[in-house]
Automatic annotation (TrEMBL):
Alphabetically ordered keywords of this record: Methyltransferase, Transferase
Keyword Lipoprotein appears in the UniProt entry: no
A Pfam family of this chain: Methyltransf_16
Protein name, as recorded: Methyltransferase domain-containing protein
InterPro entries: Methyltransf_16 (IPR019410), SAM-dependent_MTases_sf (IPR029063)
Any one biological process term the GO annotation gives: methylation
A GO term, aspect molecular function: methyltransferase activity
Amino acid sequence: MPGYLTRQQRIRLGDLDYTIRSLSDKQQFSDPDGRAKRLGISSAQWSLFGQVWPAGQLLANAMATFDIEGKRILEVGCGLGLASLVLQRRGADVIASDMHPLAEPFLAYNSALNDLPSVPYRKLQWGVPLPTLGRFDLLIGADVLYERPHAELIAALVGRHALPEAELLFCDPGRGHSGAFTRALALQGFEVSESRGALDEDEPETLRGRLLHYRRRAADGPQ
């Protein structure tokens, strides 16, 4: 038996229902070989990858209708990978990425639960270059700006992995670091537009979720 408990949830993403295996609560922890500790994941943070977060649902809903034709897509800090599952169902060229040791097996399990091929996955630490990952037309992420240093880390990751005409779509629940992220991306030629979405299905009129859509001109891209 694993050292953690799970549950299955039925979640509406776009216009379809998905079955998602997640951790049963935020108190779960299992790191018998110390892999998470070596990656800098504390016991308090360990369970966060395995939760269904409102921002993740909002991003997945956006991916149900987003223009993906001809685009190579990277989900940053995927956790359970809701957005990647939606994109996989749509036939997108998508790679999910995270650094948590259990993100990949949970993603594969959830792909199978929903009769989908496994979503391609790469282990990606935001501050560690991974040249073999290549560059992308669209980078997405949900609630990845939850600590102050993440704005600079993810902006640098964008610089390494975004094509000159790439788009970015990040969902921010309002943790206060998106301004620094936007300023860092402006140095790379990105401009932002913002839309709002509901984070609480019980209060759909409360549009607290921010979808930050970044674009730049090809001439502003890295040489």
